[in-house]
Amino acid sequence: MPSQGKRLSILSLPEVQEVYSVPQFDSHERDYFFTFTDEELDTVKSLHSHRNRIHFLLILGYFKVKPVRLIYNWKDIEVDYRYLVERYYPTASKKMQNIARYTKSRLYKKIFDIVDYQYCDNSIEIDLITHLITKAKCYVDETQLFKDAVNFLKSKLVAIPRYSTLQKVISKAINTEETRLARLMKKHLTNELPFLCLIDNTEKKSRLNDLKKLTRTCKPSENKRELKRHQILSELSAVAHRVIDKLKLSEGNIRYFAARCQQYDINRLRELKKDKALIYLTCFIVTRFRQSNDSLTQSFLASYKEFNDLSIEYRDECVKNQALALSNSIESVPHLLKFYLDENIKDATSFGSVRHQAFNIIPQDKLTLVTQQLANVKPDKNVFQWKYVDDHFNQVIRNIRPLLIALNFGCRNNTILKQSIETVKTAITTSKKFGLIDGRLLKTSEKKYLKDAVLNDEENQSVLQNRNEFYLYRLICHGIRNGDVFVKNSLEHRNFDDYLVNDSTWRQRKENLNNIGLGWMIECGDDHLMSLENLFRDKITSVGGKIIEGKNSYIKRKQNSDKLLWSKAVTAKDDLLTEKFFSHFDRKTIVNVIRRVDKETNFLEQLKPKSNRYKKSVVNIENLLACLLANGTFQGTHKFSALSDQQYKVLKRIEDDCFHGEALRLANDTITSQATRLPIFNDFRLNDNETHSSADGQRYECKHGNPLVGHAAKYYGKKKGTIVYTLVASHFATQGKVISARSHESHHLFDVVYNNTSDLKTNIVSTDTHGTNQFNHAILHTFGYQFTPRYAGFKKRFLAEFNVNFDSETIFSLAKPINWKLIKSEWDNIVKIMLSLGMRTVQQSTLVKKLCSYKKCNSTMLALTEYNRVLKCLHLLDYANDKQLRQVIQESLNRGESFQGLRRALSALGGNQFRGRSPDEMNMWNSCANLLANCIVYYNAMIMSSFKLHCIKTGNTDQIRFLQRISPASWENIILNGYYDLSDNDELWDIESEVGKVNIAA
Fold it and tell me: Are strands 692-702 and 913-914 parallel, antiparallel or unpaired?
């Protein structure tokens, strides 16, 4: 982006041009926006020249699209100018006739009078600054404040002023907020030394760089290091929390300032003003403390699970050995019975001698088990599991107990468990004995292992205490998973109520719901449920009627029977057409493909440095290409430097400075947004005027460990890996994230759909079964998305929800009726959950995960589950009834799989393995891979667009219909590997001659 002096850098150059450039109309849009009312045409008549009249109509039409005072050249308006001349003033000259600046101002003044707009004068500017200062208390984010400024001006019917004016206003709002915070920081942080020591050169013990490190695995050695960091963070967080409460910082600003601190190195933080650096440090401490609690909680769960799995494995092995020994002993039972028939044994013989002989045949310790087996009484196998706990309790002391001491657990509606946790923690820290845990926490079947011991026996008492402590860990782990137990100062494991909006936000729910587009939930809640009930009733009738009439090709009635026959849901797709099409074109190197796409979209302009808000340094395009290819192919900058002419040190510096989350998001958004303007894009739509997308996870192995990496023998064998979750719409990746190997994909579906920031918006979302849970239908429907999953074993799921009775008028009836009364009674609580999701009070995936793990005995959860079941059943009926819907869902999922195939081909260059050491680094690599894949898809879409235009031009429109069966997520025509020449070799792209030779139908 060009230098702007000391002005605040908010938007990149392409983004500025998008806001202030002349709108680009197609023929239909030109007809619509250049059609004027009689009042507007009467105003034109007051102008004296055709030139001024045409320019007046021109900028009036533009203003209806963009309420901005545009600055344009003749080449920007030439097509529209000639259109207006031919439509309204055929006798006027069509030569270049621009107007003077003063004349344009005069025309804009007349337009403002017509559309009832006004200039952004000093009074409006003051109001805007006041508004932005209020917003800045919620988030100090330049881009978001720019959007708020534009929305505020539109609501006041004020024309958007020059970019420099908005830069000045936003800069003043941010500076005002930071000055306020700095003043409060100086007032309330009385002891600033512990925080400043984090960035002090002389301090080696608690340096900030060490605190920034995250745990890579749940191993005891990593936990030990994290516990040391946790202790430092715990001491500082108490002060930091108190100061942040005084500063009244929002969660958004806490995350923002913490991210700044994470991005800046120690030298950069020292260069800041002391009060500003303290703001960054306190927010970082609070956020990092929460992350530490999350990490230790995950380690607590993993350590318990690992130990418990080993105890179960030991138990099963012992049971197996016992069964084998019993089978041998049972064979000796007939020999025992012979004693009753042995005449050599006299009646006067003592029973003791006979018993002694019996024990020689079957040992005494096994005889009891043999008799139980013969009496068909199962031996108690849990004895072996508790024996393992007794013998290996030192592992619990080393690996689990320190985590219990460090974490601050809380309980929902279970004061007995809370008291037991505190009692055990106090006893451990003071090296004292503790009594047995409260019997009300014990299962009846478990009591005999935890209470039946001789308490005056010192050894038995110690064993009993160890067992009670281990049982407490079991209760805590189960409680965390079902929502009964939470961890204070945590991000993922906090109290469920803390995830929801606070009381002040809820009191203003009407305004807040309108802001996120959910105003209908308050205004039309009852009407909405009634319409759903009527729709449900009508749909059951129509689906059943279609089957009776024999018009459903998927489900038919079995002849002479009351059973249903199910056929194949979809027909297979032929992928040979894609290979055949792209084989006609010359193969290009991946470097030339990226350069070509950049010339069309300028997406590399988005990769601007992150470190300094006022930094305007220009980066060499070859360096950007090298970093993009290195990370997008999973090779890394070190390996890639050997495959090109780039130096590793230079690439590493640019990677750290330019390849951050926000920049990569904007770069991807630029490509996907530009893709919507390609001539071929409408052919990518599966339904008219609708964009169908699919979300799916893809597993990758990882070289290094971090919180997102885990083991899964089914997918990684003995290695470890993670999941890449991607939303694909019209062949392009619009959103993606790296999620934990332990995560359920469905928890992240709403997150990736709702946070799609590109112009390529989706309104229909499909997944496989992994993307479904008991709430996703309700959540996505609430926010205006249609959720259309493809269920594995559809027949089984359909018959689980519906009973079939051909004697009934509707054939189908619900196996369990919908509890509409419960939904209506809990509607306000459902609204509160949706409001919390929409306002992003917490990461949506975290809240959805918490919802799915929460106890379903809660009436709100039951009501939300019922609401979800209504929408799920409607989808099941639609899927069973609509062949086109089934085909569209399958095609959408196929597109996602094609994109994953392209991603896999790119990552294969680097061994199909993540090398990132932290979650941020892995997400950066994933964003680069999506960006690289989107470049290839865009390039192929350009080829398809050229072919489409050629067919239209030559009148060969029959071949256009074949384009819908071709996937641009193909790499047959692209050279991915080899030595990378990053220079601009001006390679000719003679696509016109190539498309002329293509004949798809042949």
Answer: parallel
